Amino acid sequence: MSGGVDSAVAAARAVEAGHEVVGVHLALSRMPGTLRTGSRGCCTIEDSMDAQRAANVLGIPYYVWDFSERFKADVVDDFISEYSAGRTPNPCMRCNERIKFAALLEKALALGFDAVATGHYAKVLPGASGALELHRASAEAKDQSYVLGVLTAEQLAHAYFPLGDTPSKALVREEAARRGLSVAQKPDSYDICFIPDGDTKGWLADKVGTATGDIVDRTGAVVGSHEGAHAFTVGQRRGMRLGTPAADGKPRFVLEVRPKENTVVVGPKEALATALIAGSRYTWAGLAPADPASEFACEVQIRAHADPVPALAQVVPDAAGAAELVVTPEIPLDGVAPGQTAVIYVGTRVLGQFTIDRTVSAVPVGV
């Protein structure tokens, strides 16, 4: 129970369905000031109090479990490491993967519980073979299957999403009000919860330091300087000190971050078009394709609220001989950064996901 309206109503529905329900709030920091507060947080002291009030209304036991050490190691430190390596991580994906459906589920099962229920908008349904599958929620606008794409078959077997069939968030809020839950109109939370003021650039500078480096164009010519490559993400346009204007006078965008060289590569917007993405860190949400080494049709989604794009996917050996999931979209993707998560769908079903390690631009250098 995060302290928001979705998890409160999910708990209420689980109680109404006849389950034995225990409310759990996750304490993710031993220093509350390091988490965002108000409507922008999800795991602060005030959120814990909101969750407890909801549990009291529902008449269920309520506990706060301290996962702060695991959260720091698996989410915060991972976030810093990924940015330091020039990648753009998604901490909410890591939190779902390593905290809510790994650490939390492990503890729940050890204590004798059957499942972890959350307020996510997604569905777990049996497939044609009887094996469980993860599917999009009924409400496309609120669908959250993307951030759950990291779940494995074993985790799906112990996941319960009571809101999956709800057509809209407005109906959830109305239900919360009818049930007397004080969080009925509480604003949605925003990431990133562990950066209190929302200044990611400043937060990273404090954690990893600053170092002056070059900003170069696609030919390698120096066109500006920066004070830390970690402060840049692919697709970024503002905040660059470019002393040399582009020949055509058009704005330039960040195309690549090279932390080992402490260099940022910029270029035209057209060069952000991505013709291929690939990654070796992939998992399947349920049964894997019968023959993933053979090219198969799918849709790929690279952000939580992005539109899925038709694509072809295939598991192939990478340059080092390890397996790599390669996806070629029918139309180029825009502004993809290594470190992002790509989730693969077949219809409404989440087939799997991977962390993007490399991308190939649809626009060759010099064009």
Automatic annotation (TrEMBL):
It is an enzyme of class 2 (transferase). It is found in: Cytoplasm. GO terms for cellular component: cytoplasm. It catalyses: S-sulfanyl-L-cysteinyl-[protein] + uridine(34) in tRNA + AH2 + ATP = 2-thiouridine(34) in tRNA + L-cysteinyl-[protein] + A + AMP + diphosphate + H(+). ATP binds at residues 26, 119. Residues 283-352 form the tRNA-specific 2-thiouridylase MnmA-like C-terminal domain. It comes from the Bacteria. CDD domains: MnmA_TRMU-like. One of its GO terms (biological process) is methylation. One of its GO terms (molecular function) is ATP binding. InterPro entries: MnmA-like (IPR004506), MnmA-like_C (IPR046885), MnmA-like_central (IPR046884), MnmA-like_central_sf (IPR023382), Rossmann-like_a/b/a_fold (IPR014729). Residues 203-267 form the tRNA-specific 2-thiouridylase MnmA-like central domain. Its EC number is 2.8.1.13. Its main location: cytoplasm. Catalyzes the 2-thiolation of uridine at the wobble position (U34) of tRNA, leading to the formation of s(2)U34. Belongs to the MnmA/TRMU family. HAMAP family: tRNA_thiouridyl_MnmA. This is tRNA-specific 2-thiouridylase MnmA. It comes from Agromyces aureus. The lineage of its organism: Bacteria, Bacillati, Actinomycetota, Actinomycetes, Micrococcales. The gene is mnmA.
